[in-house]
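Priority: medium. Attachment 1 of 2:
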């Protein structure tokens, strides 16, 4: 959870590219609610694991507070992208080559931006 929270904060603080425009100077809500970014915001297909069907616990609030205080985990570095490939291997590049594999945490692959990202 800290790794995903770190990606969100990395997006909020991105100096260029798509996420810099979306965050508009640090708007966390704009990053989280950007269409098509987080499946937990999807209501399609009766998604049972979306934020509308879950009740946060203390750990969720603690991690949100931790991230909003400016913390990130070094396990994901400056990663802006992540996904679960449902396999043991992470593809080397984020699908459009704007991210390169940085690390795998649990079942999720994390990708740092490449030079091509700044043009998004």
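Attachment 2 of 2:
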């Amino acid at each position: 959870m800290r790794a995903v929270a770190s990606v969100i904060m990395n997006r909020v603080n991105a100096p260029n590219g798509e996420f810099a425009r979306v965050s508009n100077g640090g708007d966390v809500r704009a990053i989280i609610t950007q269409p098509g970014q987080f499946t937990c915001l999807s209501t399609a297909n009766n998604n049972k694991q979306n934020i509308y069907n879950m009740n946060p616990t203390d750990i969720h609030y603690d991690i949100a507070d931790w991230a909003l205080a400016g913390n990130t985990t070094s396990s994901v570095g400056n990663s802006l992208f992540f996904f679960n490939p449902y396999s043991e291997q992470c593809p080397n590049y984020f699908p459009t080559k704007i991210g390169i594999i940085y690390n795998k945490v649990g079942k999720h692959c994390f990708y740092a931006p490449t030079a091509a990202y700044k043009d998004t």
